[in-house]
Amino acid sequence: MPKYSVATRRARIQKLIDELTQGSSVQARDIDLVLTEQQRDTMAHAWSQQKEIRTPNKPKAITDDEHQLKLTVLWQGRCDAYTKRGTSTSKVYVDRVAKHAELTAKAVAELTKAHVLLAEILADTSMASWFDRTVSVKQINQMSLNQMPRCVTSRSTANQAVGKLPSATPKLSKTEIKLAALREALVLATAEYEREYQSTEPNEAQSAKLKALLAQMKLK
């Protein structure tokens, strides 16, 4: 691993910032080389937080609710598809009325299970924040499939929260995390550069004076 001088490291950090800002690809190794161990750890921790925001740890009750809704959607879809299907040309006789009734009953049964589960979940008021809308427990049994609340992280088109989980931590891209780490490193590198420059300036002045004195002595 190369060891940069204070001036070279500062220039290198600025170059990496410029490249990332312009949308250029920058290797992780190049960034690691200009950051201190603590700065690398801070950057890694920031990205870990971002991953947690994107994939929050859901309570089991919420994942159970999502699973039950998926089953309900599945059976309701089969029922709707069968309703739209034309008369079969197969020689095997199928009682379409009975088959449709069977599929409808299954879809209704799954929706009823979803109603019961949702009511149980919402009995704990702390769970309400996981859903995309506020509902009254008394209304649940009358809700259609589309009226059922969805988890705020759901990708369903029925999710009124557009799949966004409220968080105090803003969402940042990996590039933004890198830029934040590099900009902080640049501030510290600049301060270090200025300290080193200021500490060497008196010595340079003294050296110039000494050279001037020696020149005068030679002239005498």
Helix/strand/pairing category: mainly alpha
What is the alpha-carbon Rg in Å? 33 Å
Stretches with pLDDT under 50, minimum 5 residues: none
Estimate what percentage of residues fall within beta strands. Answer: under 5%
Number of distinct beta strands: 0
- The domain count comes to 2
The averaged pLDDT comes out at: 84
In N-to-C order, the SSE pattern is: HHHHHH
Envelope shape:
elongated
First-residue to last-residue Cα separation: 53 Å
- In DSSP terms, counting alpha (H) and pi (I) runs of 4 or more, how many helices? 6
- Binned, the helix content reads 55-70%
Largest sheet: none
Outline of the structure:
The protein is mainly α.
Description:
Helices cover 63% and strands 0% of the residues. The protein has 220 residues and is mainly α. It folds into 2 domains: 6-55 and 171-202, no CATH class; 60-142. Helix 1 (6-21) packs antiparallel against helix 6. It is elongated, with a radius of gyration of 33 Å.
Compile the SSE list and pairings.
Blueprint: H1 6-21, H2 28-34, H3 37-54, H4 60-84, H5 96-122, H6 174-219
List keywords for this structure.
0% strand; 220 residues
